[in-house]
Amino acid sequence: MDEIKQEYIKIFRALANEERLEIILKLYNEGELCASDIEKSFFMEQSTTSHHLNYLKNVGVLESRKQGRNVYYKVNLGNLTHLYDKFLKIFFEIER
User: What is the pTM of this model?
Assistant: First the structure.
């Protein structure tokens, strides 16, 4: 159970950052975008954008694909839904 709790702590930390939430919202509303488009949309440095995108990808919130020199990101809705359902079941014993 402690490993599962640590997994959720990482996810909630990822979601607790205002810039990362804005990135998620933009990707959710617009679909797939390349990293440079996200960077330009938020006037962030490339390194900051890369850090946020990698963090969100590593916890399973985003997925990516590479096309040529560009990396495209989108919200991993399937994984988020699965994590949410699992969270409710484990921590609150709620079945959806």
Answer: 0.82
Strand, coil or helix: what is 10? helix
d(CA 20, CA 14): 7
Residue whose token pair is 């985003």: 62
The yes-or-no verdict on residue 66 having pLDDT over 80 is yes
CATH architecture assignment, domain 2-92: Orthogonal Bundle (1.10)
Domain ranges of the chain: 2-92
- As a whole number, mean pLDDT of residues 54-78 equals 94
Sequence-separated (6 or more) residues with CB below 8 Å from residue 33: 26, 27, 41, 72, 73, 74
Q: Are 83 and 68 in contact, with CB atoms under 8 Å apart? A: no
The DSSP annotation for 29-88 comes to HH--EEHHHHHHHHT--HHHHHHHHHHHHHTTSEEEEEETTEEEEEE-HHHHHHHHHHHH
